[in-house]
Specification:
globular, binds flavin mononucleotide, NADH Oxidase
Length: about 170
């Protein structure tokens, strides 16, 4: 499958089957994230893998955005390690961008492996950080829910197809 086909095939999955994610697939997904670029190769991103019944119960008890995914990746970054130039730029901090490209790489790798994914940020990150006892410098950027799509309900939402046309998306200056 070409990359553009892969990108077209991906959709937000909000209902997962009970099939487990194979360990080798999870490793490959994490590897895709590990080798993603980050600002000045600072690598401030840390993935917390929620897969045990206890961890999944805990996250599902805090936010419904974990849905029934058998694997939930917490995409986090260490605020002390983000690129944050002060001398020649504005107030740019790379944490969310670094986390986003890592999450995107993992999301697309999971898609290529036949898995469904959901990028989720509809929760209080501070609340989750507190409940999981994160140190002050570790910030949660997003959750990435992963699993096999439920054959009946794991389908694209109506919003999935609402993309603006290319001439509104990109413009020549
Ligand atoms: C930054 C970001 C945050 C999102 N947060 C949530 C969320 O909390 N819950 C949810 O169900 N979907 C969430 N989504 C998924 C989007 O709603 C979805 O990508 C969008 O509607 C397009 O649909 P598609 O992914 O099926 O193409 C999020 C996506 C992004 C990129």
């Amino acid at each position: 499958m070409s990359f553009i086909e892969l990108a077209r095939n991906r959709f937000s999955c909000r209902s997962f089957s009970e099939q487990e994610v194979e360990p080798e697939k999870l490793l490959q997904i994490l590897e895709a994230g590990r080798i993603a670029p980050t600002a000045v190769n600072g690598q401030p991103v840390i993935i917390k893998v929620l897969q045990s019944p206890e961890a999944l119960k805990k996250i599902r008890g805090i936010t419904r955005m974990a849905y029934n995914a058998p694997v939930v990746l917490m995409v986090c970054y260490d605020e002390n390690k983000v690129y944050s130039p002060t001398t020649y730029m504005d107030d740019f901090k790379s944490g969310i961008m670094d986390s986003s490209i890592v999450a995107t790489s993992m999301m697309m790798q999971a898609t290529e492996l036949g898995l469904g994914t959901l990028w989720a940020r509809g929760f209080s990150a501070a609340h989750i950080e507190h409940e999981f006892g994160f140190p002050e410098n570790i910030k949660l950027a997003c959750l990435l829910d992963i699993g096999y799509a439920d054959p009946v309900n794991g389908v694209p939402s109506p919003r999935h197809d609402l993309r603006k046309p290319l001439n509104e998306f990109a413009e020549k200056l």
